[in-house]
Amino acid sequence: VFFSSFPPSSSSFFSVHPTLRMEFTGAEGQWARFPMWNACCESEMSFNMKTKSSHGLLVYFDDEGFCDFLELLIHNGRISLRFSIFCAEPATVLSDTAVNDSRWHAVTVRRNFKNTTLVVDDEIKWVEVKSKRRDMTVFSPMFLGGIPPELRSVALRLTSASIKDQVPYKGWITNLKVNDSEPAIVSSDGITSDVCEADHVCLNGGVCSIVNDQPICNCSETGFQGKDCSEVYIPEQLQVLRVQKSIFGGITLFFNH
């Protein structure tokens, strides 16, 4: 078998779907809206973050003004988780790990009926709410980095009224997952996202660019192909040498294109 040394053609561009990497500037009115996280029972949400801020709203969702909510904040440089079910006294847990050091930290929130676990890097803490009901009711989308101004102006739509006084988050969030799936951002204001800056978008020297708001990998100078330039390139001109006996008992050599 002979492999051609021809590089991929200039048409070797592929759309990729890398992890969304968001930069939150901390500007007033900043927010990112994601689909509702149905955190009623057994579920988890995780992300990586990097910041030097000591305060800021990371995650918020609720039942739109009744009883249930969950908020995740940076408080004095540490992660604070607070939630309530069925109008019970809110339960709160605060990490010992400081995250305002401009380093990447892994954060996970695990819901298990009345219990909620907070994981920050290797630190694990959990808290239980003293509620007469086990399931958390969620109606709102999941907000990251802040909440829209229209929610701040209508306090009755916020189950946790104090959330409107929290400052927006300033820093990076990446690798957001809900139950091991990456939710698609629905809408946002005041944040920037450059998926080309995420790690391992285009491999083997592939060049990433944004076309129609989607990342595209140009693999033409790499000798690789595929959405992320990870597959060895085998050109269409590949010639396979075949050996076949002729009807006269001899051997015929020919190329198959």
TrEMBL record:
**Which domain of life does this protein belong to?**
Eukaryota
Query: Is Disulfide bond among the key words of this record?
Result: yes
Classification via SUPFAM superfamilies: Concanavalin A-like lectins/glucanases, EGF/Laminin
Q: Which PANTHER family match?
A: AXOTACTIN, PIKACHURIN-LIKE PROTEIN
Task: Spell out the Gene3D superfamilies in the cross-references.
Answer: 2.60.120.200, Laminin
GO (cellular component) term, any one: membrane
Query: Domain Laminin G: where?
Result: 21-202
| Species this chain originates from | Astyanax mexicanus (Blind cave fish)
Coiled-coil residue spans: none
- Give the matching Pfam families: Laminin_G_2
Ordered alphabetically, the record's keywords are: Disulfide bond, EGF-like domain
Sequence ranges assigned to domain EGF-like in this UniProt record: 192-230
Q: Does the keyword Disulfide bond apply?
A: yes
From the Swiss-Prot or TrEMBL record, give the protein name: EGF-like domain-containing protein
